[in-house]
């Protein structure tokens, strides 16, 4: 449904983003994560034709819409965009807002399509209200209804929750996923928030340092990050200093906490590790188990109460720090010794 290859986006000959390859199947939902200024909005603008890339190729179901020979006008790409502020017309009712892009249809066809789409987003009963008479979540559904009404193939959304109450966002992100799946819409959504992305996306792209660093599922990004930038950006964790040790053909990594075996089936990158080579081992909070009676002790240097869990920052004997997410009834104070056990399920090593 959407394929992007070797795309380079620049302003005044100054490149801001390169995307090697990214593709979405029909009905898939993708999120773009990345720090401020990493090119997320620019990417959406390039896809829908609001900004012309320097090079590369963008392909939709309707065919190529951008390459060195072709640049299909924005209005002729079957892409709809919902902007951060939703851009609803305040002087128009819900029904009129949704009908706005349907001027090529007859009045009867317009009414039919508006009613169909409003029923899908469950707003039929509010068709005659004005935007100011709706909640933030309802306004967002009107914006989606308006965007998908002209039967667009791909929906782009730029920070769709930015104007909403943070406490509602995660639930709304999940509701949005359910709605988009019901509509069968292929969507690409920009967000700053990882939890929102995890709640919504089948695939996630991480943009930083001017490139798309990785494109994969939330699970892949968290457990198999492509590089140290993605590992640091996605989820929480720490890096332990390690040294590669060859032990009778078995490769191990020696760390302050334990000697960890690199699995036989490990990636090509890990197979190239040499005896004695210094490495960094990614340790997620769920790789460190709290065991009161463990012989390995660390000292609590910080604690963050999160309701069901407490996130502990722990100092090891050599002063390296790790994180541990423990059930909150294991209540330890700063300065206390804390028993730990390393339980690394996915060994991620960076040289
Ligand atoms: N019209 C423009 N002219 C010149 N530079 C621009 C223009 N639009 C964006 N940029 C630059 O391109 C880079 C990427 O900007 P962009 O808005 O795409 O990032 P973003 O990841 O969406 O940021 P944010 O999360 O803050 O919205 C930034 O350095 C920005 O200053």
From TrEMBL:
Listed PROSITE patterns: ABC_TRANSPORTER_1, ABC_TRANSPORTER_2
Gene Ontology MF annotations: ATP binding
UniProt cross-references to Gene3D superfamilies, sorted A to Z: 2.40.50.100, P-loop containing nucleotide triphosphate hydrolases (3.40.50.300)
Keyword hit for Cytoplasm: no
All copies of domain ABC transporter, residue ranges: 2-234
Keywords: ATP-binding, Cell inner membrane, Cell membrane, Ion transport, Iron, Iron transport, Membrane, Nucleotide-binding, Translocase, Transport
A Pfam family reported for this protein in Swiss-Prot or TrEMBL: TOBE_2
SMART domains, alphabetized: AAA
Top-level taxon in the UniProt lineage: Bacteria
InterPro entries reported for this sequence: AAA+_ATPase (IPR003593), ABC_SmlMolc_Importer (IPR050093), ABC_transporter-like_ATP-bd (IPR003439), ABC_transporter-like_CS (IPR017871), ABC_transpr_FbpC (IPR015853), Mo/tungstate-bd_C_term_dom (IPR008995), P-loop_NTPase (IPR027417), Transp-assoc_OB_typ2 (IPR013611)
Entry keyword RNA-binding: no
Protein name: ABC transporter ATP-binding protein
